[in-house]
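Suppose a colleague, Dr. K., hands you the sequence of a protein chain of 88 amino acids and asks what its three-dimensional shape might be. Before reaching for any lab equipment, you can write down a predicted structure in C-alpha cell form. Begin with the sequence itself:
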Amino acid sequence: MRDHLLFVALSFVWGTSFILMKWANPCFGPLSIAASRLLFGGALVLGIGMMVGARIKIGKKDWPYVIAIAVFGAGLPFSLQPFLIASI
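The predicted structure, expressed as C-alpha cells, is then:
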C-alpha cells in the first residue's frame, strides 16, 4: 500500500510540473520556463546543501565533467521539455 501511495504522490508532482509548463508557455515562452526551472532547482539544491551542512570538494580536473553533466543531464532536457510541450 505504501508503494502505491508513493507512486501516486510522485505521479502527481511530475504531472503537475508538465501541466504548469503547458499553461505557462503562452505567457513566458520555453526559454524563460527552462531558465526559471534551472534557477529554482539550483537554489533548492543549494539551500538543502546549506541546511544539512554538506561540504563537497570538487577538484580542478573534475569541473569539466561536472559542467558537462549539468549541461547535458539537466540543462538540455529542461530546455527541450517546454519546447516539446508547447508543440502538443
